[in-house]
């Protein structure tokens, strides 16, 4: 805990801010298919969120579920990673 926020240690350097359950889907959408979204796969999506400084315990699983449910990725995407 730091200033009322929950963080997790990171091997890459900065602390990772733990995201609340209410904000997970919004964050996945913004990174994956939002304004600058590139419809990246599940592993790059989880890595990009972590490198941005955020974390939650089910990040990898939630990223895989989100990419699997993305209609644009299923129709036009490459083979799954």
Automatic annotation (TrEMBL):
Please give the coiled-coil regions recorded for this protein.
none
Q: Provide the organism lineage as a comma list.
A: Eukaryota, Viridiplantae, Streptophyta, Embryophyta, Tracheophyta
- Protein name stated in the entry: Integrase zinc-binding domain-containing protein
Location of the Integrase zinc-binding domain: 20-75
Please give the organism: Lithospermum erythrorhizon (Purple gromwell)
Pfam families referenced in this protein's UniProt entry, alphabetically: Integrase_H2C2 (PF17921)
